[in-house]
Amino acid sequence: MWTVAGILLASGFILYLEAPNLARNAMMKELGIFLIVLLIGTAVGIMEAVKLPIPNPLTLITAIHKPISDMMNAFLK
Amino acid sequence: MIEKGKIGVHQFTVLTILFTVGSSILIAPSGLAHAAKQDAWIAAAVGLAIGMGMVFFYNRLTVRFPNTTLVHYSREVLGKWAGAIVSFLYFCYFFILAALVLRNIGDFLTTQVMPNTPIQYIHIFFLLVIITGIRSGIETFARTAEIFFPWMIFFFLIMVFLLPAKFDIHHITPILGYGIKPVIKASLPMISTPYMELVIFLMIFPFINNAPKARKAFLTGVLIGGVLLIIISALSILVLGADLTARQMYPSYSLAKKISIGNFLERLEVIMAGIWFITIYFKLGIAFYASIMTFAELFRMKDARPLYLPFGMILIVLSVIAYPNITSFVSFASKIDFPYSFPYAVVFPLLIWIVAVIRKKGQA
Amino acid sequence: MRKYCAWLGLLTVGAAVLLAGCWDRRELNDLAIAVGMGLDRQGGQTQVTVQIVNPGEVASKKDGGGYSPPVTTLKVAESTTIEALRKLTVVAPRKVYMSHLRILVIGEGLARQGILKVMDGISRNHELRSDFYIVVAKGTTAGQVMKILTPIDKIPANKMFSTLEMSDKLWAATVSMQLDKFISDLSNPTKDTVLTGIVITGNGKSGQSKKNMSRISPYVNLAYSGVALFKEDKLVDWLNEEEAKGYNYIMGNVNNSAGHIACPGGGTAALDITRSESKVKGKVARGQPSIHIDLFVEQNIGEVRCEVDLMKEANIQALEEIAEEKLTQMMKAAIRKAKKNKADIFGFGEKIEDADPKSWRKLKKDWDDYFSRLDVSIQVNAKFRRMGTTSNSLLDREE
């Protein structure tokens, strides 16, 4: 609970640090991307804090490359 | 391009050395000794040789495209869509690399020094310092590297000079007693990190102020970094022996535990850990910087600086969930990393180069 | 400016909160510094005895002023070493801090049963370094050894450490073994290991209290005696003094030592060994392994109890030959004991591997058998250099 609050607080702080500058210089695209990434960051941060399972890219990578790795190992035995 | 700063050639050499040594100085000897036993240092040398070959190839690529980053010329050569896909894949590669390196330092600290601290907090704090460092641009970051580099060398030399007293020459025999095959097998994970990750410097190369000298510096830097890794592997084997090196999670730390100056100054290993803090800091900084830059250039943003903090949040979460336990990491690093890095280090650059030649893009 | 302050503020707060290592902080007065640890077998469990420093006592300038001895022992039994160390918190007023450990004593009972499982927990612990010595309690339990108070050194574990270090340098019959070498040898399938044995001399319970130091000659003391021979991870035999010396000569561990030989005409002469170097070479001939040991020893004459004219070179040469013979005997005795137990404590297997890795791959599986039939040839080169401050013996009175 406190962790989630902390994450939201950090999020807000980051927003405070960066957003005004972007808005002032009318960098709308940058602001948009920044907000999206911040949203994703906060979302996964909260998911991690409440221990919701998050998809792990490494599992995908391992799944793709394991057959190749096994082939290589057999070749080099 | 977004980056406006310029780096000197010497700074680039330092960055390369620090990146090459990176996290490998901590984890490489163990894996090498596991497969090649007492020939671990030979495996490190083999890895270096291949690494130099890769640098040579990347240098050729920069001859063709000296003033733009990887994202730019992949778009130019492969077209808008294919270039974008390749760039996005590189973003993922660099980002995941950053997460793994961050996790490395976190794991090291929680294993050896502070077991009860939740790893997220170590990550958060380390990353905050890194973001402070690279947010101001590559020029400031490179200057910081120049400042810290002598310290790293100083501590490294302490180890090199104080450990020979504890050598046992029989630990390293029989040399190549079991043939070259285990050595080759051991060198593969060594090639995938750090040598295949050197493709990252294609994002930094355009900002160096003297391209021909920079290419030489690239080779020199990787050579020196690789030699440092060979030395550490050899030291591990000579002092601890092949069995202990393979058995320990962080053999360099055990090595540092053995330092005793005149039987009076002992227990200095945490200061030695300073070496690894420095090298991992710079490797992580470069990886994170490159990934943010790739992303920003991919989306043609004017300023990448606001992205650091939110991506930092994602990076921390990724570094925590990347692998559930150390066993998965070892299995990833020793088996999957090589085929995973191969496309990024070899296939894509080769593809870009070949298509560039065919379509007559860039400077011949 | 504002942005800068915000950043700085963030970093400072972060540093204050995170760098203090809140989760891992250990105040100094929350630590019980363990200097010695003893492992025994009790039932099916491991009994851990730790010797903890009593800081007030050790630091106090007034002698024997306090009400407790300089160290305390705590003992607990559990199924694994790690659990036992944690369980100690039910008896210890503080958390036991292992990083300053000086000596690890393994009880003979536990050693005979097998120590590999116990050592695993020890090797994984991040608090334990590798700079302490390991010994075996001979004829007693490690717990008993931990309880003995010793003269001169207030902390018995320190005394055990320094004694072993000294005797390793000056007397060839002990072996100082540290954790990482021990683990290395234990996990080497073809090499076996040794540990020095520690005994409690004297008798009576007074060893466990300050009464032990109440007279000039303490009632009870700790001494090193014998070297335990391990086969795989079980203690199977003891090397006596002669065999232990032979072992150390083969391994090249001898820096300084003393010994005696028989004079050519009867009587004994004592020698002060100043240098020794050994070279062990392996060879495989027609599928049969063999070892050759070259030993070079430099010594001085320390004491003469016979009638011999030390000024004649022929006599010196004769003495050298007798010394060489004696050294060969010692080494052969050690090798015999090892062969009897089929335990390659010398690392001969590794020498064969160095010499001929391909043949070693075939020999490795049955190394026990090959070792017990191993052909070992020894060549000793002993040289006398000096004879102390006098020339001929007092016994040799000019007629």
Automatic annotation (TrEMBL), chain A:
Entry's transmembrane regions: 33-50
Record has Membrane as a keyword: yes
Superkingdom classification of source: Bacteria
Keywords in alphabetical order: Membrane, Transmembrane, Transmembrane helix
UniProt keyword Transmembrane helix present: yes
Descriptive protein name: Uncharacterized protein
Organism for this UniProt entry: Paenibacillus arenilitoris
UniProtKB/TrEMBL annotation, chain B:
Localization in the cell: Membrane
Membrane topology recorded in Swiss-Prot or TrEMBL: Multi-pass membrane protein
Matches recorded under Pfam families: Spore_permease
CC annotations in GO: membrane
Domain of life: Bacteria
Chief location: membrane
Spans traversing the lipid bilayer: 12-34, 40-61, 81-101, 121-138, 147-167, 187-205, 217-242, 270-295, 307-326, 338-358
The keyword Transport is assigned to this record: yes
UniProt keyword list: Germination, Membrane, Transmembrane, Transmembrane helix, Transport
Family: Belongs to the amino acid-polyamine-organocation (APC) superfamily. Spore germination protein (SGP) (TC 2.A.3.9) family.
NCBIfam families: 2A0309
Matching PANTHER family: SPORE GERMINATION PROTEIN A2
Protein name according to UniProt: Endospore germination permease
Organism expressing this protein natively: Paenibacillus arenilitoris
TrEMBL record, chain C:
Species for this entry: Paenibacillus arenilitoris
Family the UniProt entry places it in: Belongs to the GerABKC lipoprotein family.
Keywords: Germination, Lipoprotein, Membrane, Palmitate, Signal
Coiled coil start-end: none
Start and end residues of each Spore germination GerAC-like C-terminal domain: 225-388
Entry protein name: Ger(X)C family spore germination protein
UniProt membrane topology term: Lipid-anchor
GO BP of this protein: spore germination
